[in-house]
Design a protein that fits this description.
Layout (H helix, E strand, L loop, with lengths): L1 H26 L4 H22 L16 H15 L4 H9 L8 E7 L5 H14 L7 E2 L28 E6 L7 H10 L2 H5 L12 E8 L2 H12 L28 H8 L3 E2 L4 E2 L7 H14 L11 H7 L2 H14 L7 H20 L9 E8 H6 L1 H12 L5 H4 L3 H21 L11 H10 L4 H24 L1
Parallel strand pairs: 1-3, 1-4, 2-3, 4-7
Antiparallel strand pairs: 5-6
């Protein structure tokens, strides 16, 4: 009995001591709000430094205040940190909900492919953010200048990359899969953004959501192919391009075994596209032409003495120029895994975007009429005349009539285009990524490919598609 009582007393003393120690610890904890403020201030500084390294902010923080208020800067920094760090989905969603207010009521999407303007995408976003920041222009999304979703991928159910665009923002997407129906594509781009679901992100209300403006960066297939070959057939390999040492250039399936041809050929094998003002004597590409390119690839890959176990990069270094060009172009055309297939993916997406644009013009989506505008631009035009092309881009982005954007004069746009042109010319001198005009055999290789029995016929038809689409966009620009 005495022993039990003594034990209980000891436990009570220990419990009281623990409670007293806990109280002391709690009283001496730092103020949580002060900790959060300290963290936020430090994180904002880190984010600004990160954006500056990526050329999304000027080097002098004070110069930012001439274009945006402090709150907008802080919000933009939060978004950008989510895109360039290893933030999870929750962090990205939280950053998106804090987008700074913009009076620009369209969602802007810039699409590119391998060798049609990946770096140009980023430059155009920077042009908008630097020269026409919110509230005049669109804000940058939580993804910054990174693609919204994984490139060259789609879900089996939807067949299209799900992009979740938001009004009042500018986003980029490299090499999206757009294999769903044109009707489904229009709904994805006009209805699926978080801002359109919740009606409160970015302070855009449903009645103010004007739709989507898509800048589609494409390229002549022959210059695209030769640029691709020149870019990859030299040392050293740029860090983002190390895939060239790992992938099989002749693989024509997705990782799950599905044939790439089964997705691109339905759109590209029609005989005519009257509703799109596109007509051909034969289909853009036949399955037999697709298979001929794949067979040509296999005849070149790991079949030569000394290259039996070599990777694609070693082949491009050791094959003579015509054979290396054919191998690289096969990968760019029919390769279904990782980094290939963009020649046909670009062609498919040209048609799907034009079809979706037509559908929206003749219907309504989302309970009220929204606009679905596609402006197709060529990297070759940006290379030959960067100022005029930049001005064309700005005229498309700011062509609508609304009180906020009426204050953007032609003089302002011309000044911004001049700055872009000078920046591009300076960048071109020291950039390996800009390959145009740097190889003496460019014209010879274009002619070789044009007259090649395997590649010539389908690429000539794709060239017609590209030039027809670009002509339509140029005509539209003239009417504006």
């Amino acid at each position: 009995m005495h022993s039990s009582y003594s034990s209980d007393s000891k436990r009570s003393v220990v419990l009281i001591a623990l409670l007293a120690l806990t109280a002391v610890i709690i009283n001496n904890l730092p103020n949580v709000e002060k900790l959060q403020d300290h963290y936020n201030n430090g994180q904002q500084h880190i984010n600004q430094q990160r954006r500056r390294r990526l050329n999304l902010l000027p080097s002098d923080p004070a110069s930012i205040s001439t274009k945006t208020n402090d709150n907008a800067i802080a919000n933009a920094d939060i978004q950008t940190s989510s895109s360039y760090g290893n933030a999870d989905t929750t962090a990205v969603a939280a950053a998106t909900s804090q987008t700074s207010s913009s009076s620009y009521n369209f969602a802007v999407l810039i699409i590119s492919y391998h060798k049609t303007g990946h770096d140009l995408q980023e430059d155009l976003v920077k042009l908008l953010i630097d020269e026409f920041p919110p509230p005049l222009g669109p804000n940058i999304t939580a993804k910054g200048v990174k693609s919204l979703v994984r490139r060259r991928m789609h879900t089996p159910v939807h067949l299209c990359s799900r992009l979740y665009l938001q009004p009042g923002t500018v986003a980029v997407q490299h090499a999206p899969d757009l294999f769903c129906s044109a009707e489904k594509l229009a709904k994805i781009l006009l209805e699926e953004g978080d801002g359109r679901k919740n009606n409160n992100n970015n302070n855009i209300q449903p009645k103010d959501d004007l739709g989507v403006k898509i800048v589609h960066l494409i390229r002549n297939p022959f210059t695209m192919a030769v640029s691709n070959y020149h870019y990859h057939a030299k040392k050293p390999i740029p860090r983002p391009e190390m895939w060239i040492t790992r992938q099989n250039p002749c693989q024509v399936t997705y990782p799950n075994g599905e044939l790439f041809a089964d997705y691109v050929l339905p759109s590209l094998s029609k005989r005519s596209y009257e509703a799109l003002n596109i007509n051909y004597d034969s289909r853009l590409i036949l399955r037999s032409e697709f298979e001929a390119i794949a067979n040509d690839c296999e005849s070149l890959y790991q079949t030569r003495p000394g290259l039996e176990h070599a990777n694609q990069f070693d082949h491009l270094l050791n094959l003579d120029a015509p054979d290396g060009l054919r191998l690289a172009t096969a990968e760019l055309t029919v390769q279904g895994h990782d980094n290939g297939g963009d020649m046909l993916r670009m062609s498919n997406n040209i048609l799907k975007l034009k079809q979706a644009e037509k559908i929206v013009q003749n219907s309504w989506i989302g309970g009220h009429h929204k606009e679905f505008q596609v402006h197709t631009m060529s990297l070759d035009d940006f290379i030959s005349d960067p100022k005029e092309s930049a001005l064309d881009f700005l005229n498309f982005i700011f062509d609508h009539n609304n009180e906020a954007n009426d204050v953007i004069s032609m003089e302002q746009k011309e000044s911004a285009a001049t700055k872009y042109s000078q920046t591009y010319l300076n960048k071109k001198e020291g950039s390996r990524h800009i390959t145009d005009g740097k190889a003496s055999n460019k014209e010879q290789l274009v002619e070789y490919l044009r007259h090649d029995a395997v590649f010539g016929p389908p690429l000539k038809k794709i060239e017609m598609l590209v030039e027809t689409t670009l002509a339509d966009s140029r005509d539209t620009t003239v009417m504006l």
